């Protein structure tokens, strides 16, 4: 494949498909640059003195890692001066972050999980940054309400994966393309064009330790997978669980599979574990753009009308045949 950097890719996308305006192109480049900075900090590990806990809790009541806070600050600092954003919101901040008055404001809203899976950081496992881009409604104050749009309104979504190599996986609504960071040049280079998720799979990802807390349709579906070829599915399945959503989803984007974080009796009162605006929605847009499916067990995640910025949802996504089947079990039980 010709060596196409992210910058060239975005300019060509803007020229050929003109679905990218200059502000959206700038936004994506700035987010990518921020992810490069996060990648450098992560790759230094203990040597950068940024591991361990920050001694604070976030809005989720979760202990913040130093890198959670640092990654959040890197994304805020990188994006607030460019004139492309009306506001930003993050898993790590209670309220949306307004653009300081000394900077121009733009039409887009950026919402992100600056470092997802950060509990894996201290054991040197793959983590990632997840981001979602919405348009700020005309004439609307860029407060929490402006962000509360269903996932179908996203104009772009992506994640950075801090693994053996650092990757950026991106969609602007016209398929999914992936870039690998060339550390010597300091640029993201196009390495996968038009990622597709096979409709069928033999691989599932779920935290099995929660099985006794799941609702009946989820237990029924997983028990059928575990029964293998002697069971109703007539084939054996394999299991993976990295407990880092970006890593588990990237495996699915790369070779198919399904990922579940269903509602269970422990998380029922919160509505689930994963967050709609900056985990489920961006990942669902990527998965659907790659030919997969994403539901909360009853409806497309992208059609859920958010009520709260940090709202949680059950997540079932990946190979379409499996997601359609597990969703049918949930709908039957209604
Ligand atoms: P559990 C990481 O904390 C995260 O938000 C996702 O990245 C991941 O898929 C999930 O939680 C892991 O949850 O309950 O298995 O630790």
UniProtKB/TrEMBL annotation:
> Could you tell me which species this protein originates from?
Permianibacter aggregans
Query: Pfam families, from UniProt?
Result: FBPase (PF00316), FBPase_C (PF18913)
Keywords, sorted A to Z:
Carbohydrate metabolism, Cytoplasm, Hydrolase, Magnesium, Metal-binding
Question: Which EC class is the enzyme in?
Answer: hydrolase
PANTHER family (alphabetical): FRUCTOSE-1,6-BISPHOSPHATASE-RELATED, SEDOHEPTULOSE-1,7-BISPHOSPHATASE, CHLOROPLASTIC
Matching InterPro entries: FBPase_C_dom (IPR044015), FBPase_class-1 (IPR000146), FBPase_N (IPR033391), FBPtase (IPR028343)
Q: What is this protein called?
A: Fructose-1,6-bisphosphatase class 1
Entry annotated with the keyword Cytoplasm = yes
CC cofactor: Mg(2+)
């Amino acid at each position: 494949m010709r060596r196409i950097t992210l910058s060239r890719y975005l300019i060509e996308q803007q020229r050929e498909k003109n679905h990218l305006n200059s502000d959206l192109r700038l936004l994506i480049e700035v987010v990518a640059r921020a992810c490069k900075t996060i990648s450098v900090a992560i790759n230094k590990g203990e040597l950068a003195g940024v591991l361990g806990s920050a001694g604070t809790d976030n809005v989720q009541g979760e202990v913040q890692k130093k890198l959670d806070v640092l990654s959040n600050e890197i994304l805020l600092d990188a994006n607030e001066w460019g004139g492309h954003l009306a506001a930003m919101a993050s898993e790590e901040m209670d309220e949306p972050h307004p653009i300081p008055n000394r900077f121009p404001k733009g039409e887009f809203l950026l919402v992100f999980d600056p470092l997802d899976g950060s509990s894996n950081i201290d054991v040197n496992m793959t983590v990632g940054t997840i981001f979602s881009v919405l348009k700020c409604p005309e004439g609307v104050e860029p407060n929490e309400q402006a962000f509360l749009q269903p996932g179908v309104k996203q104009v772009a979504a992506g994640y950075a994966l801090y693994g053996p190599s650092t990757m950026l996986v991106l969609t602007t609504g016209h398929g999914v393309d992936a870039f690998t960071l060339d550390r010597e040049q300091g640029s993201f280079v196009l390495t996968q064009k038009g990622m597709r998720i096979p409709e069928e799979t033999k691989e599932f990802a779920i935290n099995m330790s929660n099985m006794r807390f799941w609702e009946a349709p989820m237990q029924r579906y997983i028990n059928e997978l575990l029964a293998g070829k002697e069971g109703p599915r007539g084939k054996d399945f394999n299991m993976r669980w990295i407990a880092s959503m970006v890593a588990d989803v990237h495996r699915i984007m790369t070779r198919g599979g399904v990922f579940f974080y269903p509602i269970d009796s422990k998380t029922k009162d919160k509505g689930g574990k994963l967050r709609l605006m900056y985990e489920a929605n961006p990942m669902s847009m990527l998965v659907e753009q790659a030919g997969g499916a994403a539901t909360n067990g009853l409806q497309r995640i992208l059609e859920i009308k958010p009520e709260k910025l940090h709202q949680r949802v059950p997540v079932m996504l990946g190979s379409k045949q499996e997601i359609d089947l597990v969703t049918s079990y949930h709908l039957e039980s209604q």
